[in-house]
Amino acid sequence: GQNIDQPTEMTATEGAIVQINCTYQTSGFNGLFWYQQHAGEAPTFLSYNVLDGLEEKGRFSSFLSRSKGYSYLLLKELQMKDSASYLCAVRDISGNNRLAFGKGNQVVVIP
Amino acid sequence: DVKVTQSSRYLVKRTGEKVFLECVQDMDHENMFWYRQDPGLGLRLIYFSYDVKMKEKGDIPEGYSVSREKKERFSLILESASTNQTSMYLCASSGQGIYEQYFGPGTRLTVT
């Protein structure tokens, strides 16, 4: 099985940069996903990492280190609409396309 | 755009009732999933299906069953609803070799 750990909440100022960390333990790692979820809404896909390194997509970047079982999501130039929960999810090679989700990190953006 | 729809956004049922939650996707995806989401516990997988008439238990299948008679539709059934099944239920789908899951809007179920 997987064990996925994320900090629970952080507050940041509009225009700032925030880094959200995720650590995981899994026997057959086969990809890590980041999702954004606004209150009362469904999660939406942000990024996918399967190899080590940084993936950049506009204001959002995601980093993966497989040897350390570690990923982070970097949000730049924070906007009020970025206030949401950010979910880390790991796919295991034995899991038949199922994902194991962390509990999510609530980011609150203040003016 | 992928569209995943769920039959109800809000549902109130009584203890002991049989409850059906329906999910439909329009992208011909092979894989479909049912999760529940509770504060402090995150998303937990109840059941999933990787093909018509196929189903596999997730992490918390007790008290639930599923049905997949057609590729686009995946139903979650609560045989006898209990108050501890009050939760947000989310359906998702993904294609073969496409690992990203697309989520429906969710059904907030309250069992009284």
Helicity range of chain B:
under 10%
The rounded distance between the terminal residues' Cα atoms of chain A is: 40 Å
- Quickly count the helices of chain B: 0
Q: State the major sheet of chain A.
A: 6 strands, mixed
Radius of gyration of chain B: 13 Å
> Greatest contact pair?
A-B, 20 and 23 residues
- Count of helical segments of chain A? 0
Uncertain stretches of 5 or more adjacent residues of chain A: none
Order of helices and strands of chain B: EEEEEEEEEEE
Concise overview:
The complex is a heterodimer of chains A (111) and B (112). Chain A contains no helices and 11 strands.
Tell me what the structure shows.
The complex is a heterodimer of chains A (about 110) and B (about 110). With about 110 residues, chain A is mainly β. Chain A is about 0% helix and about 60% strand. Chain A has strands at about 5, 10-15, 20-25, 30-35, 45-50, 55, 60-65, 70-75, 85-90, 100, 105-110. In chain A, strand 6 (about 55) and strand 7 (about 60-65) form a beta hairpin. Chain B contains no helices and 11 strands. In chain B, strands 2, 4, 5, 6, 9, 10 and 11 form a 7-stranded mixed sheet that branches. A 4-stranded antiparallel sheet of chain B has the order 1-3-8-7, with no helix packed on it. The interface between A and B is medium-sized, with 20 and 23 residues.
Task: Using brief descriptors, characterize the structure shown.
heterodimer; A: about 110 residues; mainly beta; 6-stranded mixed β-sheet; 5-stranded antiparallel β-sheet; about 0% helix; about 60% strand; B: about 110 residues; 7-stranded mixed β-sheet; globular
